[in-house]
Amino acid sequence: MVEISITNLVLAILAIDRDIKAREKALRDGLISEADEQEYGEYVLDLMKALSELGGLYERARQRDPKLSPIKFD
Predict the structure, then answer these.
(1) Does 46 fall in a domain?
(2) DSSP codes of every residue in 8-67
(3) According to the model, what pLDDT value does residue 70 have?
(4) Which of 52, 70, 73 is nearest to 61 (CA)?
(5) Residue range(s) defining the domain that contains residue 55
(6) Domain total for the chain?
(7) Are 41 and 27 in contact (CB under 8 A)?
(8) Does residue 23 lie within any of the structural domains?
(9) What is the mean pLDDT of the chain?
């Protein structure tokens, strides 16, 4: 398994969350051309899967180290 520090894991989780929110907003606001909407939406789904996987890693780390606090999303 690949090793990653808790700090970098949290940074990756927060960055992906921000990216998802920005891309969802762009889709809602009509900033993406119709031709690109499907590909853009699929990418958002891929980001959501990555966020879920990384979030799971963080939750397992929290089980091993109860001092770790929950991640606070904006």
Answers:
(1) yes
(2) HHHHHHHHHHHHHHHHHHHHHTT-S-HHHHHHHHHHHHHHHHHHHHHHHHHHHHHHH-TT
(3) 95
(4) 70
(5) 13-64
(6) 1
(7) yes
(8) yes
(9) 95
- % of the chain at pLDDT higher than 90: 92
Residue 44 placed within a domain:
yes
Q: CB burial class (10 A; 0-12, 13-18, 19+) of residue 19? A: middle
Please compute the mean of the pLDDT values over residues 47-60 and round it to a whole number. Answer: 97
Position 73 in a domain: no
Kindly tell me if the per-residue pLDDT of 73 is higher than 90. Answer: no
User: Are the beta carbons of 47 and 21 closer than 8 angstroms?
Assistant: no
Q: Please name the amino acid found at residue 16.
A: I
CA-based torsion, 36, 38, 42, 48: positive or negative:
positive
Quick: pLDDT tens for 22-46.
999 999 999 999 999 999 999 999 9
Amino acid at 48: M
